Amino acid sequence: SGCQILKSYASFKEPSSIFHNMANPESPIPVGILGATGIVGQQFISRINTHPYFTVSVVGASGKSAGKRYHEATNWVIDNDIPNSTCNLNVQECDPENFKGCQVIFSALDSSVAGEIETKFLNAGFRVFTNAKNHRMDDTVPLVVPTANPSALHMIK
After folding, report:
1. How far is the C-alpha of 153 from the C-alpha of 131, rounded, in Å?
2. CA dist 58 → 25, 54, 122 (Å)
3. pTM to 2 decimals?
4. Residues 6 or more apart in contact with residue 70 via CB below 8 angstroms
5. Which of 3, 49, 83, 86 is 20 to 30 A from 70 (CA-CA)?
6. How far apart are CA 79 and CA 56, in angstroms?
């Protein structure tokens, strides 16, 4: 499945400034991961760890994981090790107040909880990319598959 962008914008005339600093890898974009302790969240963390434009700043999960260090809260199952930069982050509850400073949110939440939580992040001004199905048929949510329709990235504001 591709990534989706949740948005509430009516106009897409100007390219987004979110990717403006991508030309400067010395200033990576701080991102948050929702559902970070699950397998999809682990994949996000693993891939972002080696990405030149992003850095994982906040990891979020359910209340039972919140307050623990990431390596204590997750049962890491993918092949590579937990990145050192993420290992000791404190897991936060998935509330926008806990993700201040993040410019982008990658959501790996299960669809049973994704809709409401992702909408809260959107309403708080975050750019949200999700694998969940909840907003897939929403006319205001473009489906972005960077290898198929990279021009859709201009819609991110």
Report:
1. 16
2. 19, 12, 16
3. 0.78
4. 36, 37, 59, 82, 86, 87, 88, 89, 90, 91
5. 3
6. 19
